[in-house]
Amino acid sequence: MPGGAFSYALLLALAIALLVAAFTDLKRREIDNALNLAIALAAPLWWWSMGFGWSAVAWQVGLCVITFAVACALFALRQMGGGDVKLLTALALWFAPAHFGQVIVLMAMIGGGASIAMAAFNMERMPGETLRDAIGWIVAIGWVLLAGSIVHALAMHRPLMSPQRLEAIHLAVPQTWLLVVAALAVVALFLFGFRHIMRRQKSRLPIPYGVAISAAALWVIAEQALFTQVSG
């Protein structure tokens, strides 16, 4: 990724911009258009510093267009805010497709875990639904732990479950059909819990996805910069 002092300076500027985006998203639930525009307009400097040819630039622009189209669809479904769409689209100009894919997966896991946690706290308590509320909380905690495990595995480039643990599970439950039944039961429990959480929302939550986007991008930037420094 980085190629010289100027490239590192650009990455530092991008990291600062992402921290500002996360702060404003937490504080006011919005990301300034000027900040997103600055990130997008600085991308050609990044291409130049990295010696991108026309084909590499075309790949980045194409990735940006695809990202914008998908993000706009999510915005129409009210799954993503306008500032988040612009920030993600601007970042698509900076990351190679493989690295941007890593950003997307990390963003989805961080944002998904935060969304369910916030939704659980936003549940309205109803008389006679103590058990349903308990199931909702169990599911929310389980989902956050699962999302955290996936983020850790992706960030550390490790498998979600080690071969030794998989072998231990197989030895403990040798019958495949039992594993299938257990998996279906867990899925059914999660679906029930998610449905209950969503049905009992006191108000619509503005999810700060800008924080998840910024955190994911910052991790990938740091990882790639460290890898380049070590290999160099």
Order of helices and strands: HHHHHHHHH
Tally of DSSP helical segments: 9
Mean pLDDT reading: 83
What is the molecular shape? globular
Instruction: Calculate Rg over CA atoms.
Output: 21 Å
Distance between the termini: 11 Å
How much beta, percentage-wise?
under 5%
Give helix % range.
over 70%
Total number of domains: 2
| Class from helix and strand fractions | mainly alpha
The tally of beta strands, per DSSP, is: 0
Report the major sheet: none
Unreliable parts: 228-232
Task: Please summarize what this structure is.
By secondary structure, the protein is mainly α. It is built from nine helices and no strands.
Would you give an account of this structure?
The chain has 232 residues and is mainly alpha-helical. It folds into 2 domains: 1-96 and 207-232, no CATH class; 123-202, no CATH class. Helix content is 79%, strand content 0%. The longest helix has 27 residues, at 130-156.
